[in-house]
Design a protein that fits this description.
heterodimer, A: alpha+beta, three-stranded mixed beta sheet, three-stranded antiparallel beta sheet, elongated, B: alpha/beta, Rossmann fold, seven-stranded parallel beta sheet, 33% helix
Chain lengths: 117, 233
Amino acid sequence: MHELSLCEALIDQVTNIAREQQVSSVSDIFVSVGPLSGVEGPLMRHAFPIAAAGTVADQAELHLETTGIRVRCEECGEESDAKMNNLVCASCGDWRTTLISGDELILQRVVMGEARV
Amino acid sequence: MCDTCGCNVTPAADEHAVEVLKGLLDANDHEALHNREHFQRHNVLAINLMSSPGAGKTALLEATIEALGGDLRIAVVEGDLETENDAERIRAKGVPAIQITTGSACHLDAHMVHDALHELELDDVDVLFIENVGNLVCPASFDLGQHINVALLSTPEGDDKPAKYPVMFRAADLVLVTKSDLLEVLDDFDPDAAERHVREIANPAPLLKLSARTGLGMDGWLEWIRREAGSRE
């Protein structure tokens, strides 16, 4: 259950951005989460209000975008969709693949709320 | 378009938004980089040991220290939710050990390791083992500044653990099949199947079978440490 630590890290980043932008609140936070990042979306959603309480994100909505898993085969060069525990090439079946997407955990965008007075 | 990910939200004309594109673990990764610089400066090989609770991390360290203690200067950072028990077991082998008790936190992070490093004289260390909190989920997400991730898979756990916990086993640079002396009595652990599961998550990491208790297969592991430590001098 490290989602709470991640939400706290998220809130730290958002708080810094709000300070730079001179706003007292933010309304929306967009995060993209890959299945191989080790983060569970539902747990993140549950942890978020706990981490956000009393911060600039107190009333903010967390939008989680789940990315797909894609690999590129080092043998045949093809790109294909893959599953969490099966990253072999869908084209030639070789296991020597490189992950192109699926392990990201990125704060994409923050929508500001009210300007600080 | 859906309501869960926010792709249906069209920005209002007067909306004030900031594009960030920054990793959530940015602060941790920054501190991990700092730890790595510490290790580099002091010529320390840092190895992060991860496994489920009870896979035999501490027993492996005890046997490793006994075998290598004369050739390499070893230190250990121990992560547990509570107690100094593991650090005391390591200290009993004559090696410095710093215990991090994480309370309820399920993993070590780079900041905790950094604090522990201040209690160690890194100039007197060749190899630092970081024994992570026993957990096959969370520790995989946090870079500590280590050079190498070693995942332990003990035979009673079953050979399909890499398929069940792909994030952890994808992060491993080396997989140790521990308690291998039990293979002769366990009919449900096939080392070839374990290797196949590791390959299926596109990980080329070697698998070594060993038993800290009987000494079986320990030579390969010790040789591996010597080689890695030597390549960093």
